[in-house]
Amino acid sequence: MEWTALVATVLGAAIGVGSTLAVDRARWERDTGERDREVFRSTAADFLNALTEARDAISDASRAAHLPTAERADLARAGFLDHGVHAQQYQLELIAEPRVARLANEAAQHLLAYRDAVIAGHLREDEQCAQARRAFREARQELMSALRDALARP
Q1: Which domain holds residue 43?
Q2: pTM of this prediction?
Q3: Within-domain flag for 147
Q4: 3-state secondary structure of 30
């Protein structure tokens, strides 16, 4: 057997193995990226859902003018705690880029300000509640825009 045939065989095998490894690596990276993206999408949706559910509970408490202030305050506190806003926020912050993590924190802080306005005894029609609600809505919209941008990137 000629040495050129042996070299050609070894070189062909090396190229075949190398190309197979390169294709497998590319497939693995794509699959990992898709999995990470799905986890991020799911975590972001869970956080937005927790924010929305808590906001609805706080809003309901702000409309309960027939209840004593202490009961409305308890409803507002429970509305925030029952929906695990902080737990969902922390999960999102662990996997999100810094801008999204910052905006998630800001949205949660604005929701807390709305809750605090209700705890302080303000009703939905009061300026303090309306202002806190608007600030939360704007923060949530900014967060949602950043989430859309992050999810749109490959």
Answers
A1: 38-152
A2: 0.79
A3: yes
A4: helix
